[in-house]
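Aim 2, interim progress: modelling of the flavin mononucleotide-bound target.
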Amino acid sequence: MTKKYLTLALMSLFVLLTASAQKRGDVNGDHAVDVADVNEVINIMLGKSQSDPATTGRTLIAYYSYTGNVQAIVDELTTMIDADVVEVQPAEEGLQYEANNYAIGSALISAIRENPDDPASYPAIKPTRIDYGQYDNIIVAAPLWWSQMAALMQTFLFENGPQLAGKNIALIVSSSSSGISSVVADAKRLVPSGNFVGEALWVNDRNRANTPSLLTDWTATLPFITPNTMTNKLYLTIDGGTQLTATLADNVSVDALVAALLQSPITYQAEDYGGFEKVGALGQSFTTCDTPTTTQPGDIMLYQGNNLVIFYGTNNWSYSPIGKIEGLTVDELKTALKANQGKISITLSIN
Ligand SMILES: Cc1cc2nc3c(=O)[nH]c(=O)nc-3n(C[C@H](O)[C@H](O)[C@H](O)COP(=O)(O)O)c2cc1C
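Predicted structure of the complex, ligand included:
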């Protein structure tokens, strides 16, 4: 097959697979199309090696959270990447690990420290039903307790270590202030045959407010996060100043735009039109998936494949949805977009 026809075939396959792929599910969900297939097609299109095991496969996030900090990190992470999620839960509910000067939490950690090879040292957790064959990549997210990995998460890794052998494993640790090197050591002790990738991400009380940008930077270092697994935010910088954040839609136009933005940000000029939008040519064309739409303020649409429209009012037309600017009132949106004040420069980026 010539290169031209191979490219056409791949692009057709990409469109078909991407259009029907389910991008996120729970661990018990059915997937009509394996996202790994879509990953592989994109990797070929991007010139990556098809056989590189680190860049393919599904991702599972396994986490434990007692007071909600790790839960919040995982919630944010799942807005950025496609992954299934499993929560580790104690078999015995309602225990207060911090009561009496952390008596229970401290005793649990001590028991594991003293006899790390004895199953009886590990506090019981509720059973998890995970088909590990589906996953090549596991993100483990855990709190730190007394400088070690929280006991319940240690139980999960102790019980599932053999199934995690050979998987790519990345680690997120949340503490108040203590350093996480012993938690990393716990993970490596409990999953000795895991393929630990990248630096563990350490979220603590000093940097917790920056969790979204910490996760954006961290996921960018993980070799198994491929472009189409990122359901990133889109950032719009207006005239080099104000930065707006939009949540991206999930379609082939967004995949094409994200693939371009991974190469470099796009700056374009946009003008007012019709008293309801700023529109401008992007300088390149993207795959369309036009549908008749009544737009709302904040909507970002691809028009004719090569124009980006940002709405501060409403209109009825056929567009390819790109995303939505969140969290601004209409007046705030109009101010940020300099509505009805003529030409502005907009830089689009995804990190
Ligand atoms: C039993 C226990 C022991 C802890 N020990 C430490 C510690 O040694 N150092 C520290 O910085 N934080 C410690 N913490 C605080 C947690 O690591 C921190 O609040 C973490 O963000 C909690 O995550 P979670 O809200 O998902 O449970 C401890 C918390 C508990 C419950």
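The chain is about 30% helix and 25% strand. The chain has two domains: 55-228, 232-349.
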